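Quick start: what a row looks like.
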Amino acid sequence: MTMRVDVQPAYILHHYDYRDTSQIIELFTRDYGRLSVISRGTRGAKSKLKSVLQVFRPLHVSWSGKGDLPALTMAESAESRLPQLSGKALPSAFYLNELLMRLLHRHDVHEDIFDLYHQSLYTLAAADHLEVTLRLFEKQLLNCLGFGINLDTDAESGEPVDETGHYVYYIEHGPVALKPEEQHSITHHLVIKGKSLLAFDRNQLDTDDTRKEVKSLMRLVLSYYLGDKPLKSRELFR
């Protein structure tokens, strides 16, 4: 049975060349999740869609076909004001795309993640601290996927995290308080300050020290869900 979808909000996450003038496009759509479409002839010099089919551009798209690779039938810009990504904001946006490609299953609908991604692209374009936007995106993405991280409760005692304390963070478990004499003897686990955990819980990454500790935390957590394959977009920051 042929499926036809008309005028769907979407972003392009990635694309691959296909034959001489066509391409396979990885779309992230608001109502149909992540899917692949074939875009015929749109790499050709005379294609009217060549300039439209760009990453980070909000689109309206239509497609039609059977199976797992329907054909793109329409694409147009959805907004006149595009996110102006330059400098380090550009590799940051590619990083968001790679996270979505790696963590989203095909055809799983995540309207909340679509809205989060849309907002984050525009925030990156205007952000004073890109690191803050990236960390908040990572945290909210995991929350939306059902992998939310515990930031405010000692996973062992059940007590609230103490702002003055130090904690070892265990994946899928949470922070466990360290005694003062243990703080410098832990070498094989991430140690993070209680004040950094609570700041992240409140979305208040106001200091360099907090941003540094939270970045280490999210590297640890994401590596668990991403597996051993490194993220290619991280190379762009170098």
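That is the whole record. The beta strands are 3-18, 22-29, 33-39, 59-65, 71-77, 166-170, 174-177, 191-193. The longest helix spans residues 208-226.
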